[in-house]
Amino acid sequence: MTIQQRLPDQKVPDHFLTQGLTGWLAGIVCAATLLLASCSRPAGSSAFVAIEHEISPEPVRVGSATIILKVSDASGKPITGAHIAIETDMSHAGMSPGFAEAKEAEPGRYQAHLEFQMAGDWVILLHIAQPDGKKLERQIDVRGVRPN
Ligand SMILES: [Cu+2]
């Protein structure tokens, strides 16, 4: 499974089309902001990161699991030297989150050990710091972790 992310797009207000002159002016300001944002975007590949993940065992069961994250840039080149902190949460309240650090096993290939303490739906949050200092976050939904 591959998730790809661009820098976040500017939000256009919902009422953009329905609110006469004010909305129209806001639209122009917004468009101008978009232009500025795209002009000031750094050139090069760091604006675009692809992360492939693999969790084993498959399907996931209560207990230990391993996640492998393949991180690459727009041209498919592995991103090495990234720091990836992982947080695991269940979708319901009242459980404390789990934390893990991914280790780079091969260039651009990061591995971490996870613990799923309960059956049900989980969310894995990735906090990724690229070597150039850029940070990004990803969310991976793990639905239906099975009882053991
Ligand atoms: Cu739970």
Task: Please tell me about this protein's structure.
- This protein is mainly beta and 148 residues long.
- The chain folds into 2 domains: 2-40, no CATH class; 46-145, Immunoglobulin-like.
- It has one helix at residues 20-40; strands at residues 2-5, 49-56, 63-73, 83-90, 98-106, 109-116, 120-129, 135-145.
- The protein has an 8-stranded antiparallel β-sheet, with no helix packed on it.
- Strand 5 (98-106) and strand 6 form a beta hairpin.
- The protein is elongated and about 40 Å long.
- Residues 5-19 and 27-46 have low confidence and may be disordered.
- Residues 90, 92, 95, 118, 120 line the site of copper (II) ion.
State the CATH topology of the largest domain: Immunoglobulin-like
Low-confidence residue ranges: 5-19, 27-46
How far apart the termini lie comes to 25 Å
Task: Count up the helices.
Answer: 1
Structural class determined from secondary elements: mainly beta
The neighbouring-strand order within the major sheet is 1-2-3-6-5-4-7-8
Number of domains: 2
- Any idea what the CATH architecture of the largest domain is? Sandwich
Topology:
Elements: E1 2-5, H1 20-40, E2 49-56, E3 63-73, E4 83-90, E5 98-106, E6 109-116, E7 120-129, E8 135-145
The structure holds copper (II) ion.
Task: State the gist of this model.
With 148 residues, this protein is mainly beta.
Descriptors:
148 residues, mainly beta, binds copper (II) ion, Immunoglobulin-like, 1 helix, eight-stranded antiparallel β-sheet
